[in-house]
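Reading is simple: each integer encodes one residue's backbone shape. An example follows:

___
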Amino acid sequence: MTDRTTLTTTAGAPVPDNQNSWTAGSRGPVLLQDYQLIEKLAHQNRERIPERVVHAKGWGAYGTLTITGDISKYTKAKVFQPGTQTPMLARFSTVAGEQGASDTERDVRGFALKFYTSEGNWDLVGNNTPVFFVRDAYKFPDFIHTQKRHPKTNLRSPTAMWDFWSLSPESLHQVTILMSDRGLPVDPTRMNGYGSHTFSFWNDAGERYWVKFHFKTRQGHKFFTNEEADQVTAKTREHYQEQLFGKIEKGEFPSWTVQVQIMPELDAGKTSYNPFDLTKVWPHAEYPPIDVGVLELNRNPENYFAEIEQAAFSPSNIVPGIGYSPDKMLQARVFSYADAHRYRLGTHYESIPVNQPRVPVHHYHRDGQMNVYGGLKTGNPNAYYEPNSVNGPFEDKSAQEPPLRIHGDADRYNHRDGNDDYGQVRALFNLFDEGEKKRLFANIAAAMSGIPEEIYERQMVHFGRVHPDYEAGVRAASRVLEGREPAISVTSETPQQAAE
């Protein structure tokens, strides 16, 4: 007889019978002293943790970041030094859908990356779009409420969605991308990723540069139409998981070209747009993308829950040479993401293996939920406060980034004053060919189906401010769908230079 592994309780004691409950007689009832039955039932009740409020459904894999370019003059971060190879974890996701939602819904896709660098973890939490719906985090909870279920009907509400968007013209750039072909990629490997926010680099000389991160798919872009996505959803709700997991299992490792846009610090006061506005892009003609390296995914997780569901990404995780910017949304996310993990996973969520840095960790956080490391992380039992005279961990001044330039009085500034929310959308619209525009109009018309006339007309004003053809095209598509307006022929103009 071959050796077999003994089943034990969580306390390590052998389990004599894992088939039958402990009962009084063969018919029962069950005895309260059947501690293993109670343990199994109690643990089952706790097998699920709260799903993420947004980005609940996701798909992930491990990989490597390999640096092939040289941007060392901009940043001292070791992760970006030429030739460096860094292990990493990626998680892709939808924004609005719950864990049981279909993978092939039209939605923004999350593009979250965790790099296990030699200086600690660096997280980049972005999307498959370079912009977002809002520019001030004050409006983020309101926006997310419009994407979730209506409190009375418990159904998604197109009325709430378009009501918010029509009253928030800054959303138009992201709405146009979402409703275009790129709003429904066929799988996670066929879409770009973006850090979206403006971050900063800083070098050994204390010079700061603003930076945007881009990850350009090397598999080529490919997208579903709404009708094609419906056909896939009718067969499977797990298409993205199947595609990502299956390709990596077969050795077809997806990869992305890593690029950065670099802006000298003082240029921020010279651009015609606010470079820290999450609803804007930096035109490539002004700040050309620089190839930095290659991101490749080459290993599936062994346990989805432990390694993907418990993965905690936060823009608060930075390393020396990488910093923040005045971007209002980024400033709020630096707090809110880590706070979400503390709520969802526990106080010491970064002690979960998938979140642990690959370097020694020493800090003065104590006790609380999820303290699984057994005592202090200072390396010294007498060093549980700071400053101390017992040689506890102390700060490293070389990690201090240069001062962040700010100006102006503290106030609640109207973020819509003086903002052009139509110019960059117009440049994007003019890039679309006739077929892309036709699909854009049809997708919007379908998404607006059944909303109140007042909201419909309010949104039409914004489309018209972008371009008369934009408004006319949506009205024509709406007429075909619902008979709202007479058909209007749509013309196209010569494409302008890409804003993205």
The longest helix spans residues 328-344. The CA atoms of residues 200 and 323 lie 5 Å apart. DSSP finds twelve helices and ten strands in the chain. The beta strands are 58-67, 85-94, 109-117, 120-127, 193-194, 199-202, 208-217, 255-264, 290-299, 322-323.
